[in-house]
Design goal:
Blueprint lengths: L5 E10 L7 E11 L4 E5 L6 H9 L6 E6 L9 H11 E4 L11 H10 L5 H14 L15 H13 L5 E5 L7 H16 L4 E6 L10 E6 L2 E7 L18 H8 L5 H13 L5 H15 L5 H9 L11 H29 L3 H16 L8 H16 L4 H9 L11 H18 L1
Parallel strand pairs: 3-7, 3-8, 5-6, 6-7
Antiparallel strand pairs: 1-2, 1-4, 8-9
Helix pairs in contact: 3-4, 3-5, 5-6, 7-8, 8-9, 8-15, 9-10, 10-11, 11-12, 11-15, 12-13, 13-14, 14-15
Length: 433
């Protein structure tokens, strides 16, 4: 089992510590990054993501906690040892490129090797190899100001890699680039991770780049708010089977990256309750549902708001529709508790207890089914529910298990029924995890 390359335990960074204007930039941050991972620290301006990056660089000492790279704490090294550590272990690219305008491209790339005492011929050879590798060798004799923004950033990438570091840091690297240039730079970083096997750590506020990473740390107010494991990339960090359950809220997080976990749960359930309301009605409904989820409003009060005129603060829908919504909401909130209890028992390794919650969820699904079911269908439905809740299968695989004929190992439900069960279980998972 691989060991993490970077470890932060209860890491805290304060500015002006002990003074009247003291404030924290990082608070109780726990992170493990493994060799060859692509990690994204994501969040709005001021959330602490760049602070985390510069701590990894060895340029921003932490105040409390523990921090290790390759098993050693860089901040316990002597100044001379720290410089050597930074030269050999970490490379960084910036939003502003930070190329020296009076040096040509080749010399900019070779510059870090001067400080390591590499002979001129050897460092120029290494620099040219990198320029060729990233398709900008023809620019070698030009000054940086003669290049486009995308070309300058690729030069900066070459410079960051010239000492062959294990870790490449990227601080908003495409913030100043047009869309086409940004895409090329992001593809270059992906290639460095895939082919060069470098650990890439990206800082960004742009949700378009969430899909590049193996894992995403969502940050807010100096804290890690949640971790997203990208199911579209083969994971490097050892993840115990079933330890990660990718729910609908993770998909919503890509659409609403700055929403809190609670806000994502609200959006999931409101999506289930309505299909044909206006944006204004949905926005108001979200606020009301959140109050119910937070137990600040009863369902009877919600019903009154649902049928009230819009200009009086209501959602303005018919009584029958409102009653249907209330029933659905009550069912989801009640039955999602079984998901929560299942996950808790799974973590506690009380596997016999998990069967009780699977059975209750199976009944919740079949209560929506008007037909008769065979014992084999009940058995396979429970198996599929258990696998989905444990994280062994994803949403699509759950649907296939239900849709597949009995003789082929499936539960043998009709396609529409399988789809209905899948949608409903995902709503329960979104609320219960």
């Amino acid at each position: 089992m691989p060991e993490p390359l970077i470890v932060a335990k209860n890491l805290e960074i304060y500015y002006n510590y002990g003074k009247s204007n003291e404030y924290y930039a990082l608070k109780k941050v726990n992170v493990e990054i493994y060799p060859q991972e692509y990690i994204l620290f994501f969040g709005p301006s001021g959330c602490g993501k760049s602070t985390m990056l510069y701590c990894i660089l060895g340029a921003l000492p932490y105040t409390f906690g523990e921090f290790y790279i390759g098993g050693q704490d860089p901040y316990k090294l002597s100044p001379k040892e720290l410089v050597k550590f930074q030269q050999k272990t970490v490379g960084i690219i910036y939003q502003q490129f930070n190329l020296i305008p009076s040096l040509n491209v080749l010399d900019n790339v070779a510059l870090p090797q001067i400080f390591m005492g590499v002979p001129p011929a050897q460092r120029r050879k290494r620099a040219m190899e990198l320029l060729e590798r990233f398709g900008i060798a023809e620019q070698a004799k030009k000054l940086p100001t003669m290049l486009s923004g995308g070309q300058q950033q690729r030069v900066a990438i070459c410079r960051a890699l010239v000492n062959n570091p294990d870790i490449l840091l990227a601080d908003e690297p495409v913030g100043n680039l047009d869309e086409a240039s940004a895409k090329k730079v992001m593809e270059t970083l992906m290639e460095i991770n895939d082919k060069e096997k470098k650990t890439v750590i990206l800082v960004s506020h742009d949700p378009r780049y969430l899909a590049y990473a193996h894992r995403v740390y969502f940050m807010r107010d100096g804290r890690i708010e949640r971790e997203f494991i990208n199911p579209e990339r083969k994971q490097i960090k050892p993840i115990e089977r079933g330890a990660s359950l990718v729910s609908e809220t993770e998909k919503l997080a890509r659409i609403y990256p700055y929403a809190s976990p609670e806000e994502l749960k609200v959006k999931s359930i409101v999506n289930y309750l309505t299909q044909d309301l206006t944006f204004e009605q949905i926005e108001r409904l979200e606020k009301l549902v959140r109050l119910v989820i937070e137990r600040k409003m009863s369902t009877q009060m919600l019903f009154d708001f649902l049928i009230s005129p819009f200009e009086k603060g209501g959602v303005e829908i018919g009584q029958a529709r409102a009653q249907e919504m209330i029933q659905k909401l009550n069912d989801v909130l009640k039955e999602s508790v079984e998901v929560t209890r299942f996950r808790r028992k799974l973590e506690e390794e009380e596997l016999d207890e998990t069967k009780i919650h699977v059975k209750r969820l199976r009944m919740a699904l079949l209560d929506q089914y008007e037909g008769q079911v065979k014992p084999i269908q009940v058995k396979r439905l429970e198996e599929a529910i258990e696998d989905r809740l444990a994280g062994y299968i994803n949403k699509d695989e759950f649907f296939k298990k239900l849709d597949l004929p009995i003789e082929k190992g499936g539960a043998g439900f009709k396609r529409n029924t399988a789809k209905k069960f899948t949608v409903y279980l995902e709503k329960l998972i979104a609320q219960g995890v």
